[in-house]
Each structure stands twice: as C-alpha cells, then as structure tokens.
Design goal:
The protein is an alpha/beta fold and 180 residues long. The protein has one domain: TIM Barrel (Alpha-Beta Barrel). A six-stranded mixed β-sheet has the order 1-2-3-4-5-6, covered by helices on one side.
Length: 180
C-alpha cells in the first residue's frame, strides 16, 4: 500500500507570534507528517526550534531550519539537528551564497530558494533571474520552493475574482503534477 507523506518546509513561529501547542494542533488537523521550522534569520530561529521541540506530537517530525538572508534573497536551509543553529555566520544579513552553500555541503544540509518570485527585495527570481536560478539548481544541488502560503493566498484571490487565467492554469498544473 502506498503512503503519502506531507511536509510543510517553510513555516514561522516567532514572526507570526504563534503558540507552539497551537502550531502543532493545526499541523495535525491538516495531516502533516513533518514540519521544518524556518524562522527568519533575524527572528531567533534557534528559539523557535527549541519552543516547538517541547511540543512535537508522537509520529511527527520537526526539522531544524531557517529562512536565511543571502545576498540574492531569502534561502531556506535545513539542518539535521539542533547543532544547525551553531553556524552563526548563516544568520547574518546579506550572507554570500557561496558561504551558505559551503556550510550546506560540508555539513550535509539542504538549501532551497524561498518564494523565488516573491517581493523584489527578497526574491531570487527578481534579483538574479530565471537562468541563474536554473544554473544553481542544476550545478549546486539547491531546491526551489514552488508553492507556499503567499502563492496559495494569491491563487485564491485569482480564483475568487477571475483575475487572470494563465497563473491559475499554471498553479493548477503544478498541483496536478506535484512539481516540487
């Protein structure tokens, strides 16, 4: 029998001022198997992880991580355990991408570009363009977030208002084909 696992790989606690118990209650309600806490680098990501670690329900996995401020925009980074937060250089502002990727490779971490077409000040798509993102994915083993709450809310707006047909069709294509 096939089993589908569901993960939320981009979540915040401190930024949203969420109670840890409420956080996991919602996660269980929507059927998540794992959550990566990716608190913004400037919002004390270690404390977000530590707060949540006390409340992890049986059968659910909590992945340590952070939404880093790289020189090109926001980059999600995932560690193996709490020692991830010991790499203080990751949590500075405008960290060179090569610095981040060096730490990622050396420690067996994972990295993924967050909301690549989000706001122009924090978005790889606007800051370096599609071709460079593609090159990063192909040469540096870096992921790209293809769906998050911001895009989900935007798609709901588009559906509800019949605003633009092409983005809706594209989001529908991603959902149906599970491109992630």
């Amino acid at each position: 029998m096939e089993h589908i696992y569901t993960f939320d790989l981009h979540s915040h606690l401190n930024e949203k001022n969420v109670n840890p118990a409420d956080y996991f209650e919602r996660a269980q309600k929507v059927g998540l198997n794992a959550i990566a806490i990716t608190e913004h680098a400037d919002k004390d990501p270690r404390s977000a992880y530590e707060k949540l670690a006390e409340f992890v329900p049986k059968g659910m996995v909590l992945i340590p991580g952070s939404e880093l401020n790289s020189e090109h925009g926001h980059l999600l980074c995932y560690g193996k355990d709490k020692s991830f937060y010991d790499h203080e250089e990751l949590f500075a502002d405008n960290v060179p991408l090569e610095t981040i990727l060096g730490i990622v490779e050396k420690n067996g971490y994972l990295a993924s570009i967050a909301h690549p077409w989000g706001f122009n000040h924090d978005s790889y798509g606007f800051n370096i363009g599609f071709e460079r993102i593609e090159k990063l994915v192909l040469t540096k083993r870096i992921g790209v977030e293809t769906y998050n709450g911001m895009i989900g809310n935007l798609s709901n707006f588009i559906f509800d208002t019949n605003w633009v047909v092409k983005p809706v069709n594209f989001l529908d294509f991603l959902e149906k084909n599970r491109v992630t």
